Structure formats: C-alpha cells, structure tokens
Amino acid sequence: MLTDISDKEIVFSKSIKAGKRIYYLDVKKNRKNEMFLAITESKKIISGDGNDSQVSFEKHKIFLYKEDFDKFLNGLTQAIGYINEQQGVFIKDAQETETLQTTEDIKIDIDFE
What we know:
Layout: E1 9-18, E2 21-29, E3 35-47, E4 54-65, H1 69-87, E5 89-92, E6 98-101
Antiparallel strand pairs: 1-2, 2-3, 3-4, 5-6
C-alpha cells in the first residue's frame, strides 16, 4: 500500500503570514515514528476582474529530514547573510512598511534586570 508522505501525522505546526504568501512549517512523523519538517509555501492567486474574479492558491512543498538540518540551516544562513550584505536588511517599522537599512544601522539595546 502506497501512502502520500504529506498525509502523515502533524505533531507541530507554525504558519507565517507574509503578504500574499503563507509559509507553513509542519513537523510530521513517518511510519518509523521519525520526525521531519514539511515546508509549504502557499501563494494567493486572483484571476479575472470584478464579479468574475476567482481565488486560488498555488502551493509548493519541500521535505527536510533530520540528517539534513545542519547542512540546510548552514546554507540558508549563508544565503540570507549574502543578501543582507549586498542589499541591506529589510526591517518592518511601526507603520508596517518596509524600510531598507544596512547592517551597520541596526542597534540592539537590551537591559536585563
């Protein structure tokens, strides 16, 4: 019997809303009770105009297994670091608009009492 890996038991889930996209991070268990991460990007697509418009969602998935976590995280960190070095860091300000700042502009002041 073949089963779809996406139908496995979800033991933890986190959704991240980002504009027209939602990212889902689902921790699932396989038949051997081993956990893996399913990452889904869901993008809202609106086709047509006015009363004829239709909404659909385009989805893309990747499955990340425990033995690959360190390599994936290392690569992701390097890629994000490269983008930040080349183009600066996007930070949401109080009005929820994106402003471009270089890494030199970012200062964190934390006071632990």
